[in-house]
Design a protein that fits this description.
mainly beta; two-stranded antiparallel ribbon
Amino acid sequence: MNGGKLTQQIHFLSYELVSDGAGGSVLDETPIHELCTYAQIRQIKASRVAENLQEGINAVYEIKLRQRCGFSPQGNYTIDWGDKSLEIVEITEDVAIPRQWVIIAIHRGTGI
């Protein structure tokens, strides 16, 4: 991958389960910052992805980034990109380009 195409700063965040005081657990509202890095992001057309036919999905994105030693993205992470919060749907290794991840993520909300 051409490093010049990695122009979008993204943050991987996770959330811990904490006790709700009644014997259950809830997600802590304070995120844990896992990694800040740069990626190439492009929106996938609605006609190409079946997931965005579901209610509430505003946009689907393909995110490409270099693999990092000591970090592996997880499906339960959230990706913050500017003012958007993206949910990870799929994580794969790019078979054409070594040491690169391809992440499919969705944005839910009122705007894209």
